[in-house]
Amino acid sequence: MTLDYVALAILSVVIIMLFYGIIAVHDIPYEIAKKRNHPHQDAIHYAGWISLFTLHVLWPFLWIWATLWREDRGWGMQRIEKDQHDIHLQMNRLLVKVESLQTELDEIKSKKATAAKVVEEAK
Q: Which portions of the chain are predicted below pLDDT 50?
């Protein structure tokens, strides 16, 4: 009779440990996101709970999502943003240059037109 109670206690402890172990494992992506100061850490946490109820189908994707972000480099695309910023500055410079050339061309055309009128009047 006492072995039955021991077996029941062992079974209860194992079930409780499995239950809390699964909850601890499902929370790993959230802990990673919290450590990295991820901007979507709440969403990762809620998606982790949803993944718990869907037998951890989403869990690998949450792990990837949590590990992609790093506070020092963001999503890892800052170089692209810097290049885009440089291209934007170059584009603005070129637009200013084109506008100044257009005004110069308009001035030259107006001078040429006035000179042509003066020549015609002189004839």
A: none
